[in-house]
Each structure stands twice: as C-alpha cells, then as structure tokens.
C-alpha cells in the first residue's frame, strides 16, 4: 500500500511517500500547483493531511486537493483515532504536528520513555512515556522567531539571520549581531539542556529525538551530557503515516 503524508505548517508543505517498507521519498512543495503533479506521479491509495496553518493559508492547498479529498484523512486531534494514549488535558487544542511527532517517536522507540525536541517555527518539547502515553510538554519561541522579536520590539536592534548550521557562534558576542546570535542560539540550547535535565530526573532512561527544520542549528549547542540524541528530520511524516495505517486497518 502506497500512502502520502502531508504536513502543512506555518511556512511550508512537507510531504512523505510511504510503502510497507517505510519512507520512500520526502520533500517540500513550494506552490499548491505542485500537489497535483505529486499525486499523479505517486498514485497513493490513501493520504493524510495535518495542518497548523490558518484557514486562509490552507485554502489554496485544499483547493488543489478538492478532487481527491475523499481519499484524504484529515488529522483532527481529539477526534482522529491514533495508536497512542493521549493524556493531554485539552486534546482538541493539541497541534496536529505535535501529536504526529509523538506517534512517530513512540513507533521508533516502542516501550521507552522519549522526549521529542522539535526545533521549528516554535521550539516544542513533548513527552511520551514507556507505556505509550502522550502527556504534553512545552512550547517556546523558535530561533528565527526570537531573532525577529528582538528586532520588532526594540528600536535599534537589527534583524539578524541565522548563519550556516556549521558556523561557529561565539559565547561572548563582540558585536551587536554576534551578541544577538549568542543570546538566541546559546540561550535556546541552555533552555533545552535545563529542561532535559529536569525530565531525566523524573524519567530515568529518557531518550531524546530531535527534529524540525532548525534542528541542525540547535544540535551543536546541546550539552554532550545529554547523551545519544536521535535526529529524525521526517518524524512528523513518519507519525502521520502510522496514524493513517492505524485508521485504514480499523
């Protein structure tokens, strides 16, 4: 069975093509018109769509999918059955990407406590315990959002872009630009390091899964003491595929 997972975020539409053997192809679509070509080329038997975009942002993509919407399962947290127990107090307000990432992590690390660190538009952390229960976590501004906020809400601080992920970021910034990068990158890493330490005191043997578009920026700044970190760029797509197959089997 060929399936198609679609993850519509705040800035892009990511897709993954899956077979019984796992992920076969993934990528990012820049324009709604590309969806029709992707569908015609891959011929999925089933598809799933998760969206955290606004209604206005999602509408052009949904218009392209209108001819095949009956074959697409919309992921609606709190309504769509998932292969994971959900202990979130307000499941219908849970972001579809957070839920899919949790399902993906539970699939990759069954029977093990796992903390998902998603470095995207927002910096999210989510806990799945060894019994396969999603509990929630935290949401904080992402790296680019922090840089943009410092520029937007001050009178004179410039808008600084993130450097290449491999670039060295100074601890002690010797210019305004390098001070901003130090504060954002080193500050976010210190935040993650501290939270992980708190989680590990409560959940011994906790494993870490890092995902999201800005994961390559964050990873070099995480403390070596955190131990092995599984970097899974397609975690949300993997989770979407598991949710889709769970519903098809039902």
TrEMBL record:
A monovalent cation. Ammonium or potassium. It is found in: Cytoplasm. Pfam families: Pan_kinase. K(+) binds at residue 118. GO terms for molecular function: pantothenate kinase activity. ATP binds at residues 7-14, 121. It comes from the Bacteria. Its cofactor is K(+); NH4(+). Pathway: Cofactor biosynthesis; coenzyme A biosynthesis; CoA from (R)-pantothenate: step 1/5. Homodimer. Belongs to the type III pantothenate kinase family. This is Type III pantothenate kinase. It comes from Hymenobacter bucti. The gene is coaX.
């Amino acid at each position: 069975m060929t399936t198609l997972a679609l993850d519509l975020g705040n800035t892009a539409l990511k897709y993954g093509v899956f077979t019984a053997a796992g992920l076969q192809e993934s990528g990012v679509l820049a324009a709604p018109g590309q969806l029709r070509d992707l569908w015609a080329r891959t011929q999925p038997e089933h598809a799933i769509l998760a969206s955290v975009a606004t209604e206005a942002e999602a509408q052009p993509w949904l218009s392209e999918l209108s001819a095949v919407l009956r074959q697409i399962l919309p992921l609606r947290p709190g309504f769509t059955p998932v292969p994971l127990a959900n202990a979130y107090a307000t499941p219908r307000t849970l972001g579809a990407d957070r839920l899919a990432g949790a399902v993906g992590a539970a699939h990759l690390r069954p029977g093990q406590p796992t903390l998902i660190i998603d470095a995207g538009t927002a910096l999210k952390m989510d806990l799945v315990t060894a019994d396969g229960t999603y509990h929630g976590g935290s949401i904080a501004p992402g790296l680019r959002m922090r840089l943009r906020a410092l520029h937007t809400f001050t009178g004179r601080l410039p808008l600084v872009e993130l450097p290449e992920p491999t670039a060295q970021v100074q601890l002690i910034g010797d210019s305004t630009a390098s001070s901003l990068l130090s504060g954002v990158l080193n500050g976010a890493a210190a935040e993650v390091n501290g939270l992980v330490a708190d989680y590990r005191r409560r959940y011994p043997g906790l494993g870490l899964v890092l995902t999201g578009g800005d994961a390559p920026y964050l990873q070099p700044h995480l403390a070596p003491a955190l131990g092995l970190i599984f970097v899974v760029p397609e975690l949300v797509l993997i989770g979407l595929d598991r949710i889709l197959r769970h519903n098809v089997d039902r």
